[in-house]
Specification:
alpha+beta, Rossmann fold, four-stranded antiparallel beta sheet, serine-type endopeptidase activity, AB_hydrolase_fold, Dienelactone hydrolase
Length: 626
């Protein structure tokens, strides 16, 4: 471990840092880091069945509140919950009636179901108070039949069971018992638990039954790892699944649950993998979701397609998604966002959209940067898709640049609001987010191009994006830094340890410095065969894992580097950053180092994240002024 005894005490008391950021006054009308990272002002809004009211969580602390669309001010009206209890989840039972799960901390955390009368806020308990389970999730609700299905995990099992709850009494009965290795359950349109998806080692499998009274059996073709999502059709052995097409892209197929076999191809997108699909109440495919340059929903039904087109016409240039609807679908609650806007909720009715609430009101009227989709050719001709953010109010010429490779590495960036990107753009930097080889969402061929390319082809793709922007004159090639988290942090440390000319500085959050040590840590989540496959996928033809590790080359590091990590990271342990910090300290190489006590792989405390961005800003002011 890298901490000295005095440093351990400092870490327990607060942030451990080997540098002190200089706070600069923000430019006029540019949001501060704290404003960019503000907790959501509204979450999980739901329209009542008659469309006359909206229930939602509001800041602070996710309180339950109601919005009345008939009121001109649309001010939220909080509903007081019993002292000491907090809201777990909620759902409309009927106009004026909410069902909610309340949670109480203690030596044994407890939970209970209550009915809330929205007119007067009266709370009535349904059923018994019980010990709280883990990961409770609402799977299905049938208001007419008067029941709902909850997935949850109790203290006796490490996998979830499904419970049936009577909506009139709150009485819970076990619908499906927990099964070893089954992590998720699938319900059909009638509320019958039909299938369970499980994993054992590196193998996936499916358990299935035709109807409510049948036993679950293991499907013949259920071990196919390329099947990503299932949905059975009520009263039939048939259904639908997302699976890999011959092209290598994820597509929608029919699926025979009894035989465990794919059926006919229903839909394949020519550019991108499908992310999900929805079924109509009668079991027919309603639409598919996918991401090309941005998130999209393709509806098969003409009515739904027309409804989406009407929304997109009223809210142009945005990603618009229906999140809730009245029973007659005359009123729709729409989430609308851009890469420069974390999102706003609108009530859509009669071809008009009425603004309900913004997720981050602090950003209203502030100057945010536009994000555009770009594509460039890597040195071997592979086309790399990505995103370029340009600072507002500046000519797109000779700009300083921050390259921000995503984590994963087998993931991707999208056209989404990113407070780190907006913070950097607000300081005058262009920001490049390349979906380098190995990125998901573009088909198996693109993902497979990343196998064995850690620190090589993946890094070349990132570097080639810099060269492309420099050739266009968009950026000043002498003012480029690299910043990333997780694998992106590895890429930043790798650039710092190996690069001699392209980057002026590097910033890593939760990055990997010692690939062998990280693989030893990962070994616990794999069986031996799966672990060997994962190791080979990383190492490829490299002579050793040490040859891919930034810490191996710490002696050659000459550029300024800022290293940060959360002490409670369970994905990339904090000792990955400590190893680099220790090596640089022994070598007498100046660097900035900070540990955030209690933070995981993703920062959860906005104050810590704002502090990190402040340190990033001060570091860049010193080494690559914007």
């Amino acid at each position: 471990m890298a901490y000295l005894p005095w440093a351990r005490a400092a870490a327990l008391a607060g942030i451990l840092a080997f540098s002190t950021p200089v706070r600069a006054d923000p430019e006029p009308n540019v949001p501060t880091a704290a404003e960019l990272l503000a907790p959501p002002a509204i979450e999980e809004p739901q329209l009542s069945p008659d469309g006359a009211s909206i229930a939602a969580r509001i800041a602070p602390r996710g309180r339950l509140a109601l919005f009345d669309p008939a009121r001109p001010d649309l001010a939220p009206h909080p509903i007081a919950l019993p002292r000491g209890e907090r809201l777990a989840w909620y759902v409309w039972l009927a106009p004026g009636r909410l069902l909610a799960s309340l949670y109480r901390d203690g030596a044994v955390p407890m939970t209970r179901l209550v009915e809330i009368a929205t007119g007067n806020g009266q709370v009535a308990q349904l059923g018994q108070v019980r010990p709280a389970g883990a990961g409770e999730e609402l799977l299905h609700i049938d208001r007419k039949a008067g029941f709902l299905l909850l997935k949850g995990q109790d203290r006796r099992h490490d996998t979830p069971a499904v419970w049936r709850v009577d909506l009139a009494t709150g009485i819970r009965t076990l619908e499906v018992a927990a099964q070893a290795h089954v992590r998720d359950w699938v319900v059909d349109g009638a509320g019958v638990v039909r299938a369970g998806m499980g994993e054992k080692g590196d193998k996936s499998f499916l358990v299935y039954r035709r109807g409510e009274g049948d036993r679950f059996s293991r499907g013949e073709g259920a071990a196919d790892p390329d099947i990503a999502q299932f949905a059975p059709v009520q009263g039939s052995d048939q259904g639908y699944a997302l699976a890999e097409a011959p092209s290598g892209r994820i597509a929608l197929y029919g699926y025979d649950f009894r035989r465990g076999r794919l059926g006919a191809l229903v839909y394949e997108n020519g550019r991108a993998d499908l992310d999900g699909f929805e079924l109509d109440p009668d079991g027919r495919p309603a639409g598919v979701a996918y991401t090309d340059d941005r998130d999209r929903m393709l509806w098969f039904d003409g009515t739904a397609r027309g409804r989406q087109a009407a929304i997109d016409t009223v809210l142009p240039g945005r990603t618009n998604r229906i999140v809730s609807a009245s029973d007659d679908r005359a009123r729709l609650l729409v989430y609308s966002a851009t890469a420069s806007d974390p999102g706003t909720y609108y009530l859509f009715e009669g071809g008009q959209a009425r603004r309900i609430a913004a997720i981050n009101p602090a950003l209203e009227g502030r100057r945010l940067a536009a994000v555009t989709s770009i594509a460039y050719a890597a040195r071997d001709g592979l086309m790399i898709q990505g995103y370029l953010t340009l600072p507002a109010g500046r000519d797109a010429r000779d700009l300083p640049l921050i390259v921000m490779p995503h984590g994963g590495p087998f993931a991707r960036d999208g056209w989404d609001y990113d407070p780190w990107v907006q913070y950097l753009a607000g300081k005058g930097y262009a920001v490049l987010q390349p979906n380098y080889r190995g990125s998901t969402g573009f088909g198996r061929a693109m993902t497979a191009r990343g196998d064995g390319e850690w620190g090589r082809g993946m890094q070349d793709d990132v570097d080639d994006g810099v060269a492309w922007l420099a050739k266009r004159g968009t950026i000043d090639a002498k003012r480029v830094c690299i910043m990333g988290a997780s694998y992106g942090g590895y890429a930043a440390m790798w650039a710092a340890a190996r690069d001699k000319h392209l980057y002026r500085c590097a910033i890593s959050y939760a990055g990997i410095s010692d690939v062998r040590a990280q693989l030893d840590y990962d070994h616990r989540t794999f069986d031996e065969r799966g672990f060997r496959a994962w190791r080979n996928r990383i190492q490829g033809r490299a002579p050793s894992l040490e040859s891919l590790s930034p810490v191996t080359f710490a002696a050659g590091l000459t550029m300024p580097i800022l290293i940060a990590h959360g002490s409670a990271d369970q994905t990339v342990p904090v000792d990955q950053s400590e190893r680099m910090h220790d090596a640089l300290t022994r070598l007498g190489k100046p660097h900035d180092f900070v540990v955030y006590p209690g933070e995981d792989h993703t920062m959860h405390d906005p104050a810590n994240e704002a502090d990190f961005l402040g340190r990033v800003g001060a570091f860049l002011d010193a080494h690559n002024p914007g």
